[in-house]
Amino acid sequence: MKKVFLGLLLTLSFSINAQNNSKEVLFTIDGKPFYTDEFERVYKKNLDLVKDESQKDLNQYLELFVGYKLKVTKANKIGLQNNVQYQNEFKSYRTQLSKNYTSDSKVTAELVKEGYDRMKSEIRASHILVMVDENASPQDTLIAYSKIKEIRKRAVAGEDFAKLAQENSEDPSAKENMGDLGYFTSFRMVYAFESAAYKTDKGQISQPIRTRFGYHIINVVDIRKNRGEVAVAHIMLMNSKEDVDPQGVQDNINDIYKKIQQGESFDELAKQFSEDKSSASKGGVLNKFGSGQLSSQIFEDTAFSLTKENPISKPIQSAFGWHIVKLIDNYPVKTFEESKAELENKIGKDDRSRLITNSLTEKLRKKYKVKRDEKMFAATSKLVTNDYYDGKWELPENLKEYSSKLMNIETRIVSGGQFLNYIKSQQKSGIAAKPIAKLMDVLYSNFVDEQINTYYNDNLEVEFPEFASVVEEYRDGLLLFDLMEKEIWERSKTDTLGLKNFYETQKDKHKWKTRLDVAIASSTKMDVIKKALAMIKKGISIQDIKTKLNVKDVVDVMITESVLEVGAEALPKGTKEEVGFSEITKQGEYYFVTNVKKVLPEAVKTFEECKGKIVNEYQQYLEKNWVNELKNEFQVNVNQDVFEKVKNKLIK
Questions:
Q1: Sign of the C-alpha dihedral, residues 160, 166, 171, 174?
Q2: How many domains does the chain have?
Q3: Are residues 135 and 273 in the same domain?
Q4: Domain check: are 651 and 502 in the same one?
Q5: pLDDT digit string (tens) for 116-174?
Q6: pTM here?
Q7: What pLDDT shows up at residue 347?
Q8: In the listed set 436, 455, 488, which residue is the last one of a domain according to the structure?
Q9: Are residues 552 and 637 in the same domain?
Q10: What's the rounded Cα separation, in Å, for the pair 185 and 261?
C-alpha cells in the first residue's frame, strides 16, 4: 500500500522537471517559507496528467498544495520523523533513488545492449560443476580446475555428456536431471555462466568457466528464437470453492469444451460460465504475457503451444482450476526501447552490477583527493597478525588510541579506528593475500574504494540539486503516509461507532436495484430449450434435466442459478421483473428461458454489503474536516501578490 501511495504521490503530483532558480516565497506556515519554484514545477507536471478539471484551476491547486504542506508540517510537529521505522524506510528509498547517480551510465548502456541482444534467443544447455569456493587457496583452486579440465577432455572425446554429469557433477540436481538446465535466456543464470553459454556454439562444449559456485563446463544443446509473448482468452472453472464437487467441476468444463467443439461461440461461453470475473465479461481475454510471467507453467506452455490451425486447447488443470485456452495472437520479443527500463532494473540486481560499480569507483579515485597518514597506517598494520587467516584476529581493547586521522577524502576525515573495524568485518570474506604486508595493502585499497563511494553517495544532494528535490519529496511523502495512516486510515477502520453513524447518513446512496433469484437455461437448439422449459415447470432437478438432455457426450443445455440485479449482463434481455417463467428468447446463437423464483425489490444495502465503499467515503470525509482543523492549528499566510504573478506566468 505504501509503495502505491508514494508512486501516485511522487510520480503524478511531485515529479521533478528542470530546476528553476528564480523563486519567491509563495506562502508560509507558522513562518516557514514555501517557494514558487516548487509550486510551478508540480503544477506543470500535473497539468497533463490529471483528469479532474478542478485540479487544473490554480486557486484550487494552491488549496491542495497548502493542504499537503500542512499535513507534512503536522507530521514533523508530532515527531513522526524521529520514528526508527520511518528513518529506515527513508534510507531505503534514498538508496533506491541514488542508483541512477551511483552507476556508470556508459557501462550500464553496454550491458543493457548485450542483455537485449542475448534476450532474442533462448539456449538449452547442460552443465557439469566442480565446486570450489570463491576465496579458495591456489592449491584447492588448481585441484578443481584440473578435475573439470579432465572431465571436459572426456566429453570432447565423445563420452556421453549426460552420463558424465550424472557421475561427476557436484550440482545436487545432476543425479536426477543429468545436468540439463532446460531453456534459458539472459538474466536467468549468473552472468559469467550466461556469457560462456552465449559464446559457445550449438553442439559445442565450453572451456571451463568459473562462477561463485565453482568451475563449470557447458554443453550447448540447442539455440532457438525467443518465443516472445502470447495473447489468449480462457474459460476457467474454479476447483477450490467450498462445497463444490471437484468431479462436477471437471464434468462442467468438459461439457463446455464439447459445446465449443459443436461450434458454439467461445466468447459467449466465457461470458456465461467463466469464473474468472476479471476476464469473463470480455470473452475471457487476458493481457498478453511471456515465458515465466504467470504462476502456472502448464497454462503458459499450453498457451504457447496453440497455433492458428489449432487455436483451442483441451481442458487443462492448473492450481487455480480448470481452463480451456484460446489463442488470440502471438507477439515477438519487445523492441530495445520497450525493454530498456526493465533490463536496467535487472542489471542492478545481477552480477553485472559489479562491473558498473568497479567502473564508477575508478572514476571516483580520479575525482577525489585521498591522502594517507603513513604513521597511522603503520600503527594499524602492526596490529594485524597471522590469526587473521584463521578468523581468530581480534580488535585491540582500546580503539581510542587509533581515533586520529588515517586518511582524508577531500574534507572528510577517516580514522584509524574505522579502518580497524573494516578489517575486522572482512576477516571472513576470504581475502587470503600473504604475507601480512600484502594483505594490508589489499584491505586498505578496498577500504579506500568503500569510503570514496560512501563520500560520493553522502554528497549527492550537494552535487545534484534535482536529486536533492526528489529526496525531499520522498521524505515528505513518507511522513505524509505515516500521518494519514495514523489520523485517517486507522481511525476509519477502528472507529466502528463513527463509521456506522456515517453509514446511517449515507445509506440512501447505496442501494440494490431490483434483483431476481433466477434459474437460466441456455441452448443453441430450440427443441432442446423447449424440453428444458417443460421439465423445469414440472420441478425436475437441474442435474436430472442435464442428464436427460445432454446425451452421447453432446452438451445441448446449460442451466445456472443465481441472484442478479436487473440489467446485469448475465441476465437474458427481456426478463420480466415478476415471478414465473419467461418466454423463450434468442440472443445471438443462443435460446434462453428464465425461471424467476423470487423478485427482490430495491433495497438499501446493509452496512456489511457496502462496507468497502462506506470506509472509503468516511476516509474522504475525515480528511476534508481534518485539513480544516489544521488550518486552525497552524498560521498560513499566502503572498497574494506573488501568487498573482505565478498565475499570470502559468496561464501564458
A1: positive
A2: 5
A3: no
A4: yes
A5: 999 999 898 999 999 998 767 778 889 999 999 999 999 999 999 999 999 999 999 89
A6: 0.50
A7: 87
A8: 436
A9: no
A10: 37
Judgement on whether residues 409 and 491 belong to the same structural domain of the protein? no
Residue 566 sits at φ, ψ, to 5 deg, of -60, 130
Is residue 476 one of the residues assigned to a domain?
A: yes
Q: Yes or no: say if 478 and 6 are a contact pair by the CB < 8 Å rule.
A: yes
Q: Which residues contact 35 (CB under 8 A, 6 or more apart)?
A: 23, 24, 25, 26
Assigned domain for 61 exists: yes
- Residue-number span of the structural domain to which 151 is assigned: 121-225
pLDDT at 18: 39
Give pLDDT, residue 247.
Answer: 85
391, with CB counted inside 10 A (0-12, 13-18, 19+), is exposed
Residue 293 lies in a domain: yes
Output the 3-class SS for 274-343: CCCHHHHCCCCECCCEECCCCCCHHHHHHHHHCCCCCCECCCEECCCEEEEEEEEEEECCCCHHHHHHHH
User: Is there a domain that residue 44 lies in?
Assistant: yes
Q: CA-CA distances (angstroms) from residue 616 to 287, 611, 620, 630, 650?
A: 29, 9, 7, 21, 34
* Integer Cα distance of 111 and 346 in angstroms: 10
Which of 304, 331, 358 terminates a domain? The answer is 331
Residue identified by cell 433495497 is 603
Q: Kindly report the length of the chain.
A: 652
Q: What is the pLDDT of residues 34-64, one digit of tens each?
A: 999 888 887 887 676 555 565 578 888 898 8
Residues 3 and 125 in one domain: no
CA dist 277 and 268 (Å) reads 14
Whether the CA torsion 493, 497, 502, 507 is positive or negative: it is positive
Low-confidence ranges of the chain (pLDDT < 50): 4, 8, 10-20
pLDDT given for residue 137 in this prediction: 75
Cell numbers that stand for 29 in this block = 506556515
Query: Which residue is it, cell 446463437?
Result: 589
Q: Provide Rg for the chain, Cα atoms.
A: 34
What pLDDT score does 134 carry?
A: 77
